[in-house]
């Protein structure tokens, strides 16, 4: 595949809760950044706005950040979607997509239902096509720094072609968005400095690109990971290998996708909790309390790094000192 002591536990749990609260507030901080208003000479009536339909709400939020008040954006999949992989649009949603001027899709086999019977006058922006991803690649492209940057530039070009009189406005919004992304990347690098060779395992590969950008090493058992990518059920040997990894505390973190309701996932998350390994739930659609994609990633990265940092500190504190039980060699004993 191509891929672009109980007391300490209690304190760690309290700190993790505080970190999660702070992380949620980060959504509000990034989301509070508004797009620039167009100049008076560029004012238009609501009827002239570009109608954008995104298959995923996180990509829809990016389209709104670039398009500002010159676009009307709606999304098909939302946080309430149970399983994006088995989703099929209803008649109303199909009509919604066909009436769009711009259809923003993820691609890479994730939302193939959006490609059926589209009229020729719809401008389709495919994230996968923009970055060169193919069916069979990891499709969770919204967590890729490079994919977000490429799509933001592509949307700026598309909107500028459709409303050329507002090209400067769209380009200004792009610069504002890029500034937020640069700040996010800087924060992610700074937070990661506290970690030492961080590792993670995942019940589903939803956060592969995010964890890669954060500098984490994936230690998910290979057999399990292959079954996950192939969309098949892992066999008993692979599940046992994963359970053994968790029981042996051979990972700093377990990533779980709560939208996948397989019994195997529940078994593995229970094993992680029993071994006192932090578990982070990451959905495939942006939660309602995050206004945009940048703020969602900021919230996740802060929570992930906070929990793993606490886990590594606890692990270090629990390990015996190298000097314990060992006579220190001094000049007098040589």
TrEMBL record:
GO annotation terms (biological process): metal ion transport
Stretches the record annotates as Disordered: 308-334
Alphabetized Gene3D superfamilies for the sequence: Nitrogenase molybdenum iron protein domain (3.40.50.1980)
Polar residues biased stretches: 318-334
One annotated GO molecular function: metal ion binding
Signal sequence segment: none
Protein known as: ABC transporter substrate-binding protein
Lineage, opening ranks: Bacteria, Bacillati, Actinomycetota, Actinomycetes, Bifidobacteriales
């Amino acid at each position: 595949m191509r891929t672009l002591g109980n007391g300490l536990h209690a304190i760690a749990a309290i700190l993790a809760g505080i970190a999660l609260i702070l992380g949620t507030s980060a959504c509000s901080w990034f989301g509070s950044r508004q797009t620039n208003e167009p100049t008076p000479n560029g004012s238009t009536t609501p009827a002239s706005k570009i109608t954008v339909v995104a298959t995923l709400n996180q990509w829809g939020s990016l389209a709104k950040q670039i398009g500002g008040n010159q676009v009307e954006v709606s999304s098909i999949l939302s946080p309430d979607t149970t399983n994006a992989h088995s989703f099929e649009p209803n008649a109303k949603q199909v009509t919604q997509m066909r009436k769009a001027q711009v259809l923003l899709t993820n691609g890479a086999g994730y939302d193939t239902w959006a490609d059926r019977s589209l009229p020729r006058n719809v401008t389709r922006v495919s994230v996968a096509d923009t970055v060169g991803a193919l069916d069979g690649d990891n499709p969770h492209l919204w967590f890729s720094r490079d994919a977000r940057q490429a799509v933001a530039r592509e949307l700026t070009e598309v909107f500028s072609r459709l409303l050329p009189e507002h090209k400067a406005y769209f380009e200004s919004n792009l610069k504002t968005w890029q500034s937020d992304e640069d700040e996010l990347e800087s924060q992610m690098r700074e937070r990661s400095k506290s970690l030492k060779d961080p590792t993670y395992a995942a019940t589903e590969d939803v956060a592969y690109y995010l964890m890669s950008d954060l500098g984490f090493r994936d230690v998910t058992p290979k057999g399990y990971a292959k079954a996950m990518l192939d969309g098949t059920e892992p066999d008993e040997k692979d599940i046992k290998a994963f359970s053994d990894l968790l029981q042996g505390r051979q990972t700093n973190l377990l990533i779980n996708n709560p939208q996948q309701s397989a019994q195997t996932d529940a078994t593995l998350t229970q094993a992680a909790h029993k071994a006192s390994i932090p578990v982070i739930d990451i959905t495939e659609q942006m939660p309602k309390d995050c206004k945009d994609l940048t703020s969602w990633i900021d919230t996740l990265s802060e929570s992930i790094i906070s929990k793993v940092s606490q886990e590594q500190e606890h692990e270090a504190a629990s390990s015996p000192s190298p000097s314990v039980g060992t006579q220190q060699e001094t000049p007098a004993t040589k």
